[in-house]
Amino acid sequence: MTGEKSTEIFAASPVAQDYLKLIWTAQTRGKDGLSINELARRTGVVASTASENVRRLVAQGLIDHTPYQKARLTSKGRSVAVGMIRRHRILETYLHEVLNFDWDEVHEEAEILEHAISDRLLGRLEAALKYPSRDPHGDPIPAADGTCEVLPETILLSELTEGQEAILIRVSDRDSEAMRANDALGITLGTRVRMMRVLSEDSGFIVKIGDRESVLTYRQAQILHVSADA
């Protein structure tokens, strides 16, 4: 491994890389790609801009797309996307585990760094972390060969019924305020929770975490993905 940036990964612009990551994530979670409108909404641009970006990715052989259909990754696009996801999640893990960034802070920092670091530095970071399999949010880190652990099937904590127990598998990073609130309650990956009472969407839920009962708002519960006991 050299100190040069990966030619395949960096052939695409940062904007293109972000599109590929979004489509890869959607496809690995069971969706059949993403529409132009979905890509526009998730990247904060108008549909015409997203459409133009998609056309460029099609021209580069990174995605397949026909009008009014969802954009899907080609094998080449998947390779680029997996490389970027791997970079992002290793960086998030290093920021959290070594530099003590909170789990609600690491995404934004990793977004900046992932476009700049070399393969050699990435390898050193991964080795220093002793080759982690999950990032701070519980998402699997793809291996160097592109393989990726499959997470167990999950539901949102808000979907639990009263009396049901579950283990926290992953945390969505889309709501920093809710992440901080959950962290303050001691909710971390692997935490076992028990739904004690379902209140209302305005009032939230009463859950038992260890030996303590706490109130979770609907927003807090909506970012917690759990594996529920049968």
- Please indicate the count of domains: 2
Strand order of the largest sheet: 3-8-4-5-6-7
Describe the global form: globular
**Could you name the CATH class of the largest domain?**
Mainly Alpha
Mean of all residue-level pLDDT scores = 89
CATH superfamily of the largest domain: Winged helix-like DNA-binding domain superfamily/Winged helix DNA-binding domain
Which structural class do you get from the secondary structure elements? alpha+beta
Order of helices and strands: HHHEEHHHEEHEEEHE
State the helical fraction. Answer: 25-40%
Please count the beta strands (DSSP E, at least 2 residues each): 8
Q: Which parts are unreliable, with pLDDT below 50 for 5 consecutive residues or more?
A: 1-11
CATH architecture of the largest domain: Orthogonal Bundle
Query: What oligomeric arrangement do these chains adopt?
Result: single chain
Helices, by number, come to 8
The end-to-end span amounts to: 46 Å
